[in-house]
């Protein structure tokens, strides 16, 4: 199996490179539930569990690692993909072969060895593969089995969503949930609840709980409006965001 080969230098370089690409493709990245991060004991390793519906998911997690700089972050990735993009090993990715039970067991053993370090935060997509965003969520039991094997670790649920709203480009949203102590609770229910909260926030267009983790990019109409305000000496009245109207 392919093991992680973490590198702070490559992590920094790739983070800045991907962040620049993200800013061209998205309006902003909003993050809620940051208060739950302070509930993570420094003496306990953590398994992060998230839904997996988009090519960007792993990169959003790369951005979110900056909220927990003291943690050593790893992520489980399909080995067939990691063989093609081995540079991700520098970010903490390691491979798992989903089609070979023996090699799958090796990956779990390796993951358990990483979790012996209490500073480890190991990210897993328990759906195993990329699935449609609105599909009924189903988690495989790998994360739960891993938590049982390690013992004395926490699980951190995370929901990820992408949505077109009032802006030219889509927004990316993430919401953390409270840490889970019982391995029996490591299932899709916690992430389903977080996704429902995000969907409700989108429906109400209420993002007051969210941190703008990556500053917003002006939509094309707002660039024209900003130029008009500058031209007429009214830059102070400019509103950067489009809003829904009743």
What would you note in describing this structure?
- The chain has 7 helices and 8 strands, in the order αββαβαβαβαββαβα.
- Helix 4 (101-114) packs across helix 5.
- Strand 3, helix 3 and strand 4 (93-96) form a beta-alpha-beta unit.
- It has an 8-stranded mixed β-sheet, sandwiched between helices.
- The protein is of the alpha/beta class and 246 residues long.
- It has helices spanning 8-25, 57-64, 79-84, 101-114, 142-150, 188-204, 220-231; strands at 28-32, 46-50, 72-78, 93-96, 120-124, 154-163, 171-176, 211-214.
- The termini are far apart.
- The protein folds into 2 domains: 8-215, Glycerol-3-phosphate (1)-acyltransferase (3-Layer(aba) Sandwich), CATH 3.40.1130; 217-246, no CATH class.
Return the CATH topology of the largest domain: Glycerol-3-phosphate (1)-acyltransferase
Helix content: 25-40%
- SSE pattern: HEEHEHEHEHEEHEH
> What's the domain count?
2
Total count of strands: 8
> Averaged pLDDT, please?
93
The gyration radius over C-alpha positions equals: 20 Å
The CATH class label of the largest domain is: Alpha Beta
CATH superfamily of the largest domain: Glycerol-3-phosphate (1)-acyltransferase
Model regions low in confidence, pLDDT < 50 over at least 5 residues: none
Number of helices: 7
Strand portion, in percent?
A: 15-25%
């Amino acid at each position: 199996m392919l093991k992680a080969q973490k590198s702070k230098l490559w992590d920094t370089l790739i983070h800045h490179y991907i962040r620049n690409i993200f800013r061209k493709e998205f309006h902003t990245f909003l993050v809620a539930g940051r208060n739950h991060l302070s509930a993570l004991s420094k003496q306990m390793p953590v398994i992060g569990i998230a839904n997996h519906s988009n090519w960007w998911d792993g990169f959003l997690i790369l951005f979110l690692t900056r909220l927990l700089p003291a943690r050593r972050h790893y992520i489980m990735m399909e080995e067939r993909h990691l063989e093609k993009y081995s540079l991700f090993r520098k970010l903490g990715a390691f491979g798992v072969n989903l089609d070979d039970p023996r090699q799958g067991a090796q990956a779990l053993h390796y993951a358990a060895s990483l979790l012996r370090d209490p500073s480890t935060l190991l990210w897993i997509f328990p759906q195993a593969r990329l699935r449609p965003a609105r599909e009924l969520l189903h988690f495989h039991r790998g994360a739960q089995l891993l938590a049982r094997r390690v013992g004395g670790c926490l699980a951190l649920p995370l929901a990820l969503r992408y949505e077109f709203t009032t802006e030219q480009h889509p927004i990316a949203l993430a919401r953390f949930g409270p840490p889970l102590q019982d391995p029996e609770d490591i299932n899709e229910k916690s992430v389903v609840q977080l996704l429902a909260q995000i969907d409700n926030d989108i429906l109400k267009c209420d993002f007051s709980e969210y941190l703008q983790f990556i500053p917003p990019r002006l939509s094309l109409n707002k660039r024209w409006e900003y130029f008009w305000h500058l031209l007429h000496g009214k830059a102070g009245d400019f509103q950067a965001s489009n809003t829904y109207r009743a």
